[in-house]
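To: structure desk
From: M.T.
Subject: fold request, one chain
Message: Could you run this one when you get a chance? Sequence is below, nothing fancy, just the single chain.
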Amino acid sequence: MHTEALYDLFLTCDKVNTDSRKITDNCMFFALKGENFDGNQYAINALDNGASFAVIDDASLADEPKCIFVDDTLKSLQELANHHRHQLKAKLIALTGSNGKTTTKELIYRVLSTKFKTQCTHGNFNNHIGVPLTLLSIKEDTEFAIVEMGANHLKEIELLCNIADPDYGYITNFGKAHLEGFGSIEGVIKGKSELYDHLKNKGKFIFVNARDPKQVELTSAYDKCIEFNKANGSGLDSQFISADPFVKFDIDGDSVESQLTGFYNFHNISVAVAIGKYFEVSNENIKSAISNYSPENNRSQIIERDAQKIILDAYNANPTSMKAALDNFDQMSSSGKVAVLGDMFELGDFALTEHQAIADYAQGLSIDQLWLVGENFFGINTADSRCKTFRTYKDLEAFWTEHQSSYNTFLIKGSRGMALERLLNSE
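Reply: Done. Structure tokens follow.
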């Protein structure tokens, strides 16, 4: 079936679904395939559970009622999303980068929502399946859509840009994330910059943090850059005041306190301020939106219990974000500080070197104890009595239960697979 005909059927449905376990009435089910599953096997069940149509690429189901046969369900999903995107009036802002994408997305969403009908990526729907689903969820009356784009190898951002065709773009930073897939920091820069390449080729606009030399370098020859945080001012700027622990910043002479920790989060805040100002959101609305945003899902959360303060930043980690979190922790005016760090994943051949570098760096900071967990951290070399390594989470948990009450302030950070937030439920 051609995309235009499929789109006519899509318009009669309430939503698109790719998970047969979460079927809702009047949805359109796309039977996607993966290494260990074939959605075609669940197409009839999806229809029985309320789906109006099932898009399939198994020819044996082609004659089943309400089954729509296509050559490739994933490609059809992506083409449908692209077609829908071009029927919308919404201005689309694409975000990518090594760290801070989700926090930045949430801040921009909250700022723009004070003035415009705005939608954004939900959860981690930021890949070759999630971006199409995000686009297909955008409503006709939406004025702005913020779409997060994740990648762990070259050409992935290029694909997502071809699907979403953004009007504006922003790269949060270039860090040592997904080195296994990108191959090197140079590969990371090249991969993330596919967003810049797409916007340049389309004559669209790029937001550029003037405090990031690499962003400035990569966009210096492009005349559709919207710069903020310039030394001589751009009218879109905000100023950093402090971060102990929450980021305080200044907008045109007014001091604002956020609920986000660390200087690294100031960069995320500053682009939300710049985009708000660019689209003429009032300063009062910008300040209110940012100051009322509270992080969740283990992202830079501050948890206070009894006399202890815990910075829970355990959603994910890579060498760049780990170093930034440690820098912020080092600068906090607290006593009895313990950094609890878990392994960083997807580093490939760089894994042991990068874990050793983080341990060495942390040992040079004013931190009372360093508790490191995971196969990579367990393999480091250290003679510092403050540093303790644990091969498994259970080993760390036993130590935590016995010793954590002796300290006041904790940083807990590691890759998602380490799930270090479990410590908070340990007695």
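Reply (cont.): Residues 3-70 form a domain with the Udp-n-acetylmuramoylalanyl-d-glutamate--2,6- Diaminopimelate Ligase; Chain: A, domain 1 fold (CATH 3.40.1390.10). Let me know if you need anything else for the meeting.
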